[in-house]
Amino acid sequence: MIRVVTDSTSDLVPADAARLGVDVVPLTVRFGDEQFLDAVELSADQFYSRLPDTPVQPSTSQPTPEQFAEVYRRHVAAGDSVVSVHISSKLSGTIQSASLAAQEFPDGAVRVVDSTTVSAGIQFLVRAALDDIAAGAGHDHVVGQMEQRRDRIVVYVLLDSLTYLQRGGRIGRAQGLLGGILKVKPLLRISEGEVHPEARVRSRQQGISKMVEMAAAQRPLEALGFFHCGAPELLALIEPRLRHDHPDVPMFSGQLGAVVGTYSGPGGVGVGLLRAG
Amino acid sequence: MPGAEAGSKLTVLREPTLEVGGEQVLAALRSALAWLQANQEEINDLNVFPVPDGDTGSNMYLTLRSAVEEAQEAAAPGSAASVLAAAAHGSLMGARGNSGVILSQILRGLAQGVGGQVRLDASRWAQGLREARVVAYKAVMRPTEGTILTVVGAAAEAATKAADESVDIVTVLEQAVRASHAAVERTTEQLQVLRDAGVVDAGGFGFAVLLEGMSRSIADPEAGQSAPSGPRRRSGEGRVQLPFGTDETLDTPRPSVRRGAAAVEMKHEGWGYCTEFLIHGPGLDTEGLREELGALGESALVVGDSDVVRVHIHTGEPAPLIAVASQRGRLSKLKVEDMSAQHHEVLERADTADVRSGQGQPATDTRRKQLGVVSVAPGGGFRDILVSLGADSIVEGGQTMNPSIEDLLNAVRSAHAENVVLLPNNGNVILTAQQVDGLVEDVAVRVVPTRNLPQGISALLALEPDGTLDANCTRMVTAIEHVHALEVTRAVRGSAVNGHDIKEGDVLGILDDQITEVGDDERTVIDAVLRGVVPAPELVTVYRGEQVGQELAEVLVEGLRGDFPDTEFELHVGGQGHYPYVLSLE
To answer: Disulfide engineering: A137 pairs with which of A132, A145, A225, B219, CB 3.0-4.6 Å?
Structure first.
């Protein structure tokens, strides 16, 4: 049997992971000297409620190779093979730990795939792989499909402000999103493995409209995922519009976890889409 | 031809004027300018809207003044075609507001229509006016009858008809003037807004006045000379030394921005710096200035009137010259160019085969950025905001001071970019901005028709510096659809608009160019407009004008926050004149 493993930046919550039969290896979130296993010891809700008041900028670190090896060992010992899909290698070193761990196992029993995306983007790959496996696909085929699908994934995130991106020192390419004297809300796009500045808007409604328009412009879609950053009420602003535009497209919703949330801050909302092949 | 008038219905009681040359055309233009100046306020008052905005009379006057300034420097002062071509070019550079742009196109058409003739007869004048009509209509995207276009058309028709029957230029022009004024009277019935306000079209009236000034000068040259204009350059004292080749004739009707550059160096190589500027009065003594400044350089050209004097001097040391001049009045359009550098550039252009090192194009190109943005802004606050959002160059201007094409052109050049997006940020600057593209050879200029500052800011927010010109324009055009602008001002005159009976001094709330609310105070008007906006805006950005202090504005914004708890309000300094508040509704 083929097992799917991912990491906590997929934002697949433990309940969903258990239901789907997927292993989620947690990254580590640190607030100063305190550290937590992402989504295991610190839920996204807890994370966002803590974020505005923290005197120190939280930081995250990739799982150790041993964390991955432990999971792989269990499956390989049971005679299963593994597809391990992770956050873009350009955003985190997570995939290095996974690759290192995979070397322990002979004959490609554990295949590691760079998702080139994050959050809902990883979930598309996980969910589609489970469907492929259920349909009887072989190991190579599952990996091959992932590597094709990942190029059809785009994730948009509308941040409430640039504050956290700046605080985290990750402003880099998003420099162009600075609004100068005016307050702006940056809209980011994650594709081809990286975070790109997509637009700067002055109101949340403008940003949401933009995301909805971009989703419509990329039809036909195979799947949609939408998520919030510590502000579930924002989903009500985007979900009905997406359902209206894409009545037959499977959708899921969730919350952006601590790792990306460190840079997005609370009050963000986003949408991920998988274009049809 | 002499027999033509014998049987004519038109009686000529004086010697017919069969031909005019460059000198008379220049005098006619000066006379037109004097007439326009004398009627400037009256034309301004024909503004049907109670909002303070770019006044037609002032815009036409400033545009024609720029035309006359340049006509005074025509390459061949004796040639009517040369004088008109220079005037057309000058008017284009100086064109302000929509009426100024259309006037510049009328002059361009006139210059084209006379077809390079050194002396013009009556039929050439008629032809010139016909061409003026054609070119002017083309300048406007949706030509409307009851405007200056109609009046130019009437003048062209009357001139054509008169020229069929008479060889006398004065007769032809007088008929054109008469037809123009009659057409002006009819404009009231042709346009609803004019009928409502009970006035004639300002631009059309301005053109009739201008034509009358020209006609009077040609009919009576003495009257033309008494007009308040610059010194007569071609008087008996001998020709003022022109920096440009004086015998050069322009053979293309379309004026070239680099006119005569080659001639400068052929004559005056090694003279150091070519220094040009305008001195602004009032009360300038042109003769005195010519003597004083002429002593500081060579090849001095000092022309103008008591309000503005144009100086063009070649000197080895521009600094003392500028220092002296700045004591006589405010300086503008200062330009100092190293003539040896110019010379190289000219030579390089001429020598297309090989590209040399130094000032050549490739070296400059590598320094230019891919995409630049030029934006018009009326105040310091808006300027800072636009710059902070990525504008490369800001042109002063807005509601009551519409920038000229040349102002915009200079800003486009100073952006140092291969592609430039131009944001006019005012309805009366859009047409001016649209003229710029054809005037710069090596920059692609695209206008995103922003009608107000909130739209301009939205457009800039959509800027993607790495994107292409086309992609950015598309993004910007989409972005400006989503923002509403509420401009708050006080009525400068009583009027009846959109069913509102407006008294002078009333507070007007103008939502997206429509007077939506009229009231006694700003808070009430803003409140009423905001209540009518559906869906309610999520964010309202308030930009306070120069006459409103921070505290007063804060009081207003606090009040609005109380009235609209679901809307976020942001207060910034706009620094605009005449409009206490400009609000952006998103």
So the answer is: A132
- Assess whether pLDDT exceeds 80 at residue B545: yes
Mutate: best of B387, B458, B461, B566, partner A, most A CBs <10 A? B461
| Cα–Cα distance, A1 to A208 (Å, whole number) | 41
Q: Are strands A28-31 and A59-61 parallel, antiparallel or unpaired?
A: antiparallel
Express each pLDDT in B411-448 by its tens digit: 999 999 999 999 999 988 999 999 898 888 889 999 99
Q: Do A181 and B541 touch (CB under 8 A)?
A: no
Q: Tell me the CA distances in angstroms from A271 to A22, A207, A252, one per residue in order.
A: 22, 11, 10
Which residue of chain A is at minimal alpha-carbon distance from B465?
A176
A163 part of contact set with chain B, CB < 8 Å: no
B368-480 placed in CATH 3.40.50.510:
yes
State the smallest CA–CA distance between residue A235 and chain B in angstroms. Answer: 17
Q: How far is B481 from chain A (nearest CA, A)?
A: 11
- Give the angle A122-A123-A127 at the CA atoms, nearest 5°: 125
CATH class of A2-151: alpha beta
Distance from C-alpha of B79 to C-alpha of B249, rounded to nearest angstrom: 8
Task: Compare B482 and B262 and report the one with higher pLDDT.
Answer: B482
Distance from the A208 Cα atom to the nearest Cα atom in chain B, whole angstroms? 12
Six-digit token string for A1: 């049997």
Bridge-based pairing of strands A194-201 and A221-228 is unpaired
Domain B261-350 sits in CATH at 3.30.70
As a CATH number, domain B2-225 is: 1.25.40.340
Domain ranges (residues) in chain B = 2-225, 261-350, 368-480, 484-585
Contact B269, B343 (CB under 8 A): yes
Count the neighbouring beta carbons within 10 Å of the beta carbon of residue B477: 14
List pLDDT tens digits, range A54-71.
Answer: 888 888 889 999 999 999
| Residues in chain A closer than 8 A to B572 (CB atoms) | 181-182
Residues of A in contact with B539 (CB under 8 A): 202-203
**Residue B464 is which amino acid?**
E
Rounded distance, CA B563 to CA B556, Å?
A: 11
Among the partner-chain residues A181, A201, A205, the one whose CB lies closest to the CB of B385 is A181
A75: its two tokens: 């499956």
In whole angstroms, what is the distance from residue A266 CA to residue B85 CA? Answer: 64
pLDDT at B401: 81
Lowest mean pLDDT among A112-126, B224-238, B269-283: B224-238
- Class (C level, CATH) for A152-275: alpha beta
Q: What is the pLDDT of residues B329-366, one digit of tens each?
A: 888 877 776 654 443 443 333 333 222 233 333 334 45
**Closest-CA residue to A42 (of A53, A33, A51, A29):** A29
Q: How far apart are CA B23 and CA B27, in angstroms?
A: 6
Q: Does domain B484-585 have CATH number 3.30.1180?
A: yes
**Order of all β-strands in the sheet with B393-396:** B393-396, B369-377, B417-423, B444-447
Question: What are the residue ranges spanned by the domains of chain A?
Answer: 2-151, 152-275
- Gyration radius of chain B's alpha carbons: 26
